[in-house]
Amino acid sequence: MPKPPPVFDFHLLLLLTVISAINAAAGAWPITQQFKEAAQFYNSLSCPTIIVADKDGFLCSDQAVHVAMTLDSAYIRGSMAAVLSVLQHSSCPQNIAFHFVASATANASLLRATISSSFPYLNFQVYAFDDSSVSRLISTSIRSALDCPLNYARSYLANLLPSCVRRVVYLDSDLVLVDDIAKLSATQLGDNSVLAAPEHCNANFTYYFTPTFWSNPTLSLTFANREACYFNTGVMVIDLDRWRQGDYTRKIEEWMEIQKRMRIYELGSLPPFLLVFAGNIVPVDHRWNQHGLGGDNFRGLCRDLHPGPVSLLHWSGKGKPWARLDANRPCPLDALWAPYDLLQTPFTLDS
Ligand SMILES: *[C@@H]1O[C@H](CO)[C@@H](O)[C@H](O)[C@H]1NC(C)=O
Ligand SMILES: *[C@@H]1O[C@H](CO)[C@@H](O)[C@H](O)[C@H]1NC(C)=O
Question: Does the CB atom of residue 31 touch ligand 1 within 6 A?
Answer without folding.
Answer: no
